[in-house]
Design brief:
The protein is α/β, with parallel strands linked by helices and 632 residues long. It is 31% helix and 24% strand. It has two domains: 279 residues, Divalent-metal-dependent TIM barrel enzymes (TIM Barrel), CATH 3.20.20; 327 residues, 2,3-Dihydroxybiphenyl 1,2-Dioxygenase, domain 1 (Roll), CATH 3.10.180. It is built from 18 helices and 24 strands. The strands form three sheets. Strands 1-2-3-4-5-6-7-8 form an eight-stranded parallel barrel, surrounded by seven helices. A hairpin with a 7-residue loop joins strand 23 and strand 24. Helix 10 runs parallel beside helix 14 and helix 16 runs antiparallel to helix 17. Bound molecules: 3,4-dihydroxybenzoic acid and magnesium ion. The site of magnesium ion (MG) has 4 residues, from loops.
Length: 632
């Protein structure tokens, strides 16, 4: 389909925005009026620049406070409109968005609004132009798509049609803010639907104008069902642009090239979702992106930690005490392979990077298909330095820079294990650890929403378990992306607000969590072997005993083993932690019981406070993520 983006989505000048949109592969743009007004270029120059970039100008917007005006204002409004039509002629754009009036002196009279829009359409038609009328969710009187459609119908002019914007429709459908039925859009005749704007948003219980102006997201980053919504629009016969219109405080200050790629990824993923809707699949002549389907992921092949001269030996000692065996050495790089049960960890001391999770390898049913899909979804491919006997592992970069590898352990030829000279064998899991349960990655503030879409679209993981909690260094936001059966879980966390210099650059270290079948046996065995485990204050256990009526023996065992606890409607979660290595990494052991699928977010502030001692808030510069704290 024709993919477009409103200039308001991107940061910078009009020139920056147009260049970024074209570079990301968009076919067209909506010119947001303020971007044009502030630009040093004439309309003709903008038109030429767009043409040179291969961008059509699909919409000029917005034209505000037109309908329901007193006769005197109407004369002024028509004059204002004529000036904009002249400008549109120069720009070479034939459709203008008129959004429903918010003016306090608007008259509540649908017949009057319809008559005035008819007149406006008549003026537009003389120049071969069209009026796309959009109901703002906070319009003075017109604030549902149904109401705008009723007025367009009464206005009865071929040059008068609707603009539907998923935010205005779904924000009202979702929070019970007013009666509206997104599915009903399917009944509008396609020729009366002039334009489609798409935005996602997180579910927030707040004023709808503030929600729209600050928190809109690209499709797939929030909680709206845009596939169903767009299917209803396509059912009308609408074949115009899929156009993104996102107002977002973070994107407004993000590098426009990167944001435009994120935006394009969201449309590719949406088109793919549309192709799965039976109603859409049956219609011909809809060209949709069809990336290779996401192959099934069955777990983590390995996780690689970048270590330095200090953290490397400390981590190696900790892994040994936790029961891991050092079973191999990489053929050409300073990389150690450690294993316990099915949990494999690489310690890589060859890079410049500070101690951190540097790579995650997922077990995929088809590594080549995973790589093709990642490419189709614009994941940046990473070049691999490859030695003669080494597997050709495909890797892409996640938004935070973590390398994601696609592996099939044991597969002929591509087995990554053959990169290692095996020098030992895994012990018999003396500490009951079975596999990697999850990897927790600190996200740079600017890339949190981009990361959600990346993992969802590229790896086919589902976003779940949104949390927000007050921690010693500020408010922390968490979200997990998981394989449906829970075999791959990645927990993302980041700061909710930017902060000054006192708090650490990242709110919480990254960590690697291993699953055990017996949390107390693991804790006792690891402690006996000298693992550097974290101490939890007595206050925590006193509160736990007060909040939950736990078996006194279990509570005593938790206190003895420094195990934290959570439960939800279906199951229980037991977990304990190591100290922090190199400021940026710790290890966790978890036991899930009865289908608990969370991450013990309720306990995170306690654990973070316990880690506080090793995360002194001074001298932070060296502890920021590579992508944090850089000059813009
Ligand atoms: O927030 C606004 O004013 C605004 C303007 C134009 C739009 O298309 C829209 O959806 C919102
Ligand atoms: Mg809009």
């Amino acid at each position: 389909m024709h993919r477009a983006i409103a200039t308001v989505c991107l940061s910078g000048t009009l020139e920056d925005k147009l260049n970024a949109a074209a570079a990301a592969g968009f076919n067209g743009v909506e010119i947001f009026e303020n971007d044009f007004i502030a630009a040093p270029w004439s309309a003709e120059r903008v038109r030429r620049h767009c043409a040179g970039l291969g961008l059509s100008i699909d919409l000029y917007q917005p034209f505000r406070d037109f309908e329901g005006a007193e006769p005197d204002s109407m004369r002024r409004n028509l004059r204002r409109a004529e000036r904009k039509f002249e400008l549109m002629e120069r720009l070479g754009v034939d459709t203008i968005l008129v959004c429903s009036s918010v003016a306090p002196d608007t008259v509540d009279d649908d017949d009057l609004a319809a008559e005035q829009l008819h007149t406006l359409a008549e003026h537009a038609a003389r120049r071969g132009m069209r009026i796309a009328y959009e109901a703002l969710a906070w319009g003075r009187f017109v604030n549902t798509w149904e109401h705008s459609w009723d007025i367009v119908r009464r206005g009865d002019h071929p040059a008068l049609g609707l603009c539907v914007d998923s935010f205005h429709v779904l924000s009202r459908a979702d929070n019970g803010n007013g009666k509206t039925d997104p599915a009903g859009i399917a009944t509008v005749p396609g020729e009366k639907l002039f334009f489609l704007q798409l935005a996602d948003a997180p579910r927030l219980d707040m004023d709808v104008l503030q929600w729209s102006r600050h928190h809109r997201l690209f499709p797939g980053q929030g909680s709206f069902d845009l596939a169903t919504f767009t299917t209803a629009v396509l059912a009308t016969g609408y074949r115009g642009p899929l156009s993104l219109e996102v107002f977002n405080d973070v994107f407004r200050q993000s590098a426009p090239d990167r944001a435009a790629v994120d935006a394009m990824r969201s449309l590719i993923a949406l088109e793919e979702a549309l192709g799965r809707q039976p109603e859409v699949r049956q219609r011909e002549r809809i060209e949709l992106a069809r990336p290779a389907p996401a192959p099934e992921l069955s777990g983590f092949a390995f996780t690689e930690l970048a270590v330095d001269a200090d953290s490397g030996p400390r981590l190696a000692r900790a892994l040994a005490a936790m029961g891991f065996a050092h079973i191999g050495e990489h053929r050409s790089k300073p990389v150690q392979l450690w294993q316990l049960g099915d949990a494999r960890i690489l310690l890589n001391s060859g890079g410049e990077q500070a101690t951190a999770v540097s790579a995650i390898a997922v077990e995929t049913a088809d590594p080549a298909a995973s790589a093709r899909r990642a490419e189709a979804l614009l994941a940046p491919a990473l070049p691999r330095a490859r030695g003669p006997a080494e597997a050709d592992l495909t890797a892409v970069a996640a938004p935070d820079g973590t390398e994601i590898f696609f592996c099939r352990t044991g597969a002929e030829g591509t087995g990554w294990l053959s990169d290692f000279i095996l020098t030992g064998t895994a012990s018999d899991a003396p500490t009951a650890v079975t596999h990697i349960d999850h990897v927790a990655l600190a996200q740079p503030f600017d890339y949190f929403d981009e990361a959600t879409l990346f993992y969802r679209a590229v790896l086919g993981l589902d976003p779940r378990h949104d949390s927000e909690f007050a921690a010693p260094f500020g408010l922390v936001r968490g979200r997990a992306v998981t394989e449906p059966a829970g075999r791959v879980r990645i927990a993302l966390h980041g700061t909710v607000l930017r902060r000054g210099d006192w708090a650490p650059g990242v709110p919480d270290p990254q960590h690697l969590a291993m699953a055990t079948g017996d949390i107390f046996a693991s804790a006792r065995a690891m402690r006996a072997r000298g693992a550097p485990l974290l101490s939890i204050p007595d206050n925590y256990y006193d509160d736990l005993g007060a909040r939950l009526e736990l078996d006194p023996e279990v509570l005593a065992a938790m206190r003895e083993c420094q195990v934290l606890y959570d439960r939800d409607g279906v199951g229980e979660y037991y977990h304990f932690h190591t100290e922090v290595f190199g400021d940026r990494i710790f290890l966790e052991i978890v036991q899930r019981a009865g289908g608990y699928s969370g991450y013990g977010a309720v306990n995170a502030p306690v654990r973070m406070t316990a880690h506080r001692a090793v995360r002194s808030p001074t001298g932070e510069a060296s502890r920021r993520l590579p992508s944090e704290g850089q000059a813009p």
